Amino acid sequence: MFAEMKSRYLILFTILGVIATLIIFMLIGADPVTTEIAVQIAFYIVVPYFFFHYYWSKNPDFSLSEVLTTKGVKPWLPGITGMVLVSIAFSLTMFWLQLAILYPAFPWLAEFLLTPVETPGGVGYEYFMLLTLVILAPIVEEFVFRGVFLTRIAAKTSMWGGILISSLMFGVLHLDFVGSFLFGIIASLLYLRTGNLLLPIFFHMLNNALAALSIYVPIHEFFAIDWFIVNTAADIEAKAFANIIVLIISTLLTAWIIYRLTKGLKDTKQKHEIAEPLSQSETP
């Protein structure tokens, strides 16, 4: 399904779409909030819609059921939930590590990274951003990165070439580069193991939903994780030992998850096809 889609066209159209949207809304004198919403709509709705519609209209035999099905999903749900928790723990402790490295030399930068982000818009803006974060972004980004980019790059290089390069691209677009890069590897392996984009989409949605929850619910109310969460510059040193422990455990668990998902997976460079879905007994 994704093999015929040109990834370079998707990149080009996305860049042009975003630039055109910015120029139009700057010319009409739109405020920053309206412009940001318009850019998000262009990035997550308009460009992907026309890109995928173009290829689907060229080939009426394309069917979403080839890559999107509820069949065989249920046995994976507990494992995916665990993967999300490990991914979040790893990302949080990597954030602490970055702060610990930055603070001695650039305390102002560490303080800036710890400053809570205030949303500039009203309730409508917040609802739209929540919809984008939890629904639109996971669906579109999985179709783009795990669908188009992974498939196309793997066909030109190798399975691991596709996984690593598409995950690097995914990481570059996110502030948490290391965490997002490993997140992309796990999402790629989920797709390759099952041939079903619904699993990485669910993985992505759950991760983003928990991230959104932390925005609207003060982190100190999560008593189970407050002991290692860094909220202030003082926490960088005070919670160092806790973060080191969580970082080691989450790193080992992440490596184990990748190993389990990789085990038995054959390189698709020659066949250019996704592996057959695993049976229920083979899920991690």
UniProtKB/TrEMBL annotation:
One of its GO terms (biological process) is CAAX-box protein maturation. The chain crosses the membrane at residues 9-31, 37-56, 76-105, 125-145, 181-203, 241-261. Pfam families: Rce1-like. GO terms for molecular function: endopeptidase activity. Signal peptide: none annotated. Residues 127-210 form the CAAX prenyl protease 2/Lysostaphin resistance protein A-like domain. InterPro entries: Rce1/LyrA-like_dom. The keyword Transmembrane applies. Keywords: Membrane, Transmembrane, Transmembrane helix. PANTHER family: CAAX AMINO TERMINAL PROTEASE (PTHR43592), CAAX AMINO TERMINAL PROTEASE FAMILY PROTEIN (PTHR43592:SF15). This is CAAX prenyl protease 2/Lysostaphin resistance protein A-like domain-containing protein. It comes from Planococcus rifietoensis. The lineage of its organism: Bacteria, Bacillati, Bacillota, Bacilli, Bacillales.
